[in-house]
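By way of example, we now present a protein record of this kind:
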Amino acid sequence: MKKRKDHNNLKDLILRARAKGIQVRLERLEASGIRLRDGMCLLKGEKSLFLDKRRPSKELMILLREYLKD
C-alpha cells in the first residue's frame, strides 16, 4: 500500500514539473560502468531533469521537490 502511495506521489510531482516546463527523465544514469549524477540541463532549449530510475521512490520524490522549489 505504501509503495503505491509513493508511486502516486511521484507521478504527481512529475506532473507538477511538467506544468513548470520541466521534462522529467527517469533513466539508468550510467556510462561505461560509471554512475552519473542526477541533474537539470537544457536540451534543445527545454529544461530536462534526469533522475536515476534505480533510486527508491522516496529519494526521487525528495530530489524532485528540491528541483521544484522556486
Notes: The CA atoms of residues 38 and 51 lie 5 Å apart. The helical segments are 2-19, 57-68. Strands lie at 22-27, 30-31, 34-35, 39-43, 46-52.
